[in-house]
Design brief:
Layout (H helix, E strand, L loop, with lengths): L1 H14 L4 H13 L3 H9 L3 H4 L2 H13 L3 H13 L5 H13 L3 H15 L3 H13 L3 H14 L4 H13 L3 H14 L4 H13 L3 H14 L4 H13 L3 H14 L4 H13 L3 H14 L4 H13 L3 H14 L4 H13 L3 H14 L8 H16 L1
Helix pairs in contact: 1-2, 2-3, 2-5, 3-5, 5-6, 5-7, 6-7, 7-8, 7-9, 8-9, 9-10, 9-11, 10-11, 11-12, 11-13, 12-13, 13-14, 13-15, 14-15, 15-16, 15-17, 16-17, 17-18, 17-23, 18-19, 19-20, 19-21, 20-21, 21-22, 21-23
């Protein structure tokens, strides 16, 4: 039916090339089919006068969002607003463009203003919740996602964003409940699959986690957090080449996520790629110089290279910043072992393992134990 409609519209517009209304209808049909390139060709083939029609500008903005050209989309939305063509849809798309550009405060303010002007909607409330998470304003994120669910509790996407909010605020039972609600309504809901997969990973239900992450990637192949989770599952399955490839995709999609750089570093260490692991830790360090586990990772690199003085200094810096920095304590154990204090090294490892992993971290306890076993022939 849709293909026939597209053919019919193409026939009409061939007879009336400047008809903006026909062009908008055809672009809508092509975007529904996922043919973004053809939709762009329709818009670019219009004469200048038709390109300035508000409906055409709005479709151009929507196409920009779909193609990841967030700056272009924002410019088109702002052009409409400046021309007095304002609506909740235009404001939402402007806010969403800013969110995708990592401008969380701007996105939140635009969505808040739109709700005040036009009345709140589920879409605006979800967008505010996402922006609040980006700003680490967790109470605000909870308030906004609860507003979205109050407006319409039947929406799978609202439950999915709720799952993400509760995961990031540490309310794991609520995160699980929200993910279940979302997946009952849409078994491919992106955020819900990511949350369900993450919870399964933390609980070491690896096959279930992998299934959830792979299903999410079917429709969202560049989802950074999903790629990060899948990479960690692959590490735990000891499929290190695949883990490195997936984690490299994750840091490309999400270059400002320190934990994913740490996961990549562990995967590289387990392959014996110390120089590449050091590069990953330096990427994390460039994001935040005060993150304890990053300093601990650099201490670990120094220990593996036999630079015990640098390892001890980096480990001390790490533990000042984070007394629970596992990488720093593991680096100290390697130094003790290299110095002949095997019992002291064992005591450090036993202390680390007895505390149990922190569920919101890369499962470095598992990787530390595996790396230690890998190194034993050269350290005994």
């Amino acid at each position: 039916m849709s293909s026939a409609r597209i053919l019919r519209l193409r026939g009409f517009i061939a007879q009336d090339a400047g008809n903006a209304d026909l062009a908008c209808e055809l672009v809508d049909a092509l975007m529904e089919e996922g043919d973004l390139g053809a939709a762009g060709d329709v818009l670019s083939s219009l004469p200048d006068a038709s390109r300035a029609v508000p409906g055409v500008v709005f479709r151009r903005a929507r196409l920009g969002l779909a193609q990841g050209r967030y700056g272009d989309a924002a410019n088109d939305c702002q052009q409409l607003i400046d021309a007095g063509i304002d609506s909740v849809a235009v404001r939402h798309d402007l806010a969403f463009s800013r969110l995708c550009e990592r401008q969380g405060q701007s996105a939140y303010d635009i969505a808040q203003s739109a709700a005040a002007t036009f009345g709140d909607t589920v879409e605006l409330a979800m967008l505010r919740a996402r922006a609040a998470l980006m700003l680490e304003s967790y109470e605000l994120a909870q308030s906004d996602i609860e507003a979205a669910l109050t407006l319409d509790a039947s929406r799978a996407d609202a439950w999915g964003v709720a799952a993400l909010v509760y995961l990031d605020t540490g309310d794991l039972p609520q995160a699980k409940h929200a993910a279940t609600q979302a997946l009952a309504r849409n078994d491919h809901q992106h955020e819900a699959l990511m949350v369900a997969g993450t919870l399964a990973l933390w609980e070491q239900r690896l096959d279930e986690a992998q299934l959830m992450f792979e299903r999410a990637l079917e429709r969202h192949p560049n989802s950074g957090r999903v790629l990060s989770g899948l990479g960690q599952v692959l590490m735990l399955h000891n499929d290190l080449p695949a883990a490195v490839e997936v984690l490299q995709r994750a840091v490309a999609a999400m270059p400002d996520h320190i934990g994913t750089w740490h996961a990549l570093a562990w995967a590289l260490l387990l392959q014996g790629r110390t120089d590449d692991a050091e590069s990953a830790y330096h990427s994390a360090y460039a994001l935040d110089r005060n993150f304890g586990d990053t300093h601990g990772g650099l201490a670990l690199i120094a220990a593996l290279r036999g630079d015990h003085t640098e390892a001890e200094q980096s480990a001390k810096r790490a533990l000042r910043l984070d007394p629970n920095a596992l990488t720093a304590r593991y680096a100290q154990s390697l130094v003790l072992e290299a110095q002949g204090d095997r019992s002291g090294a064992d005591a450090v490892i036993e202390e680390l393992l007895s505390t149990g992993p922190r569920v919101t971290d890369v499962p470095a306890h598992e990787f530390a134990t595996r790396l230690r076993a890998k190194l034993q022939p050269s350290t005994r």
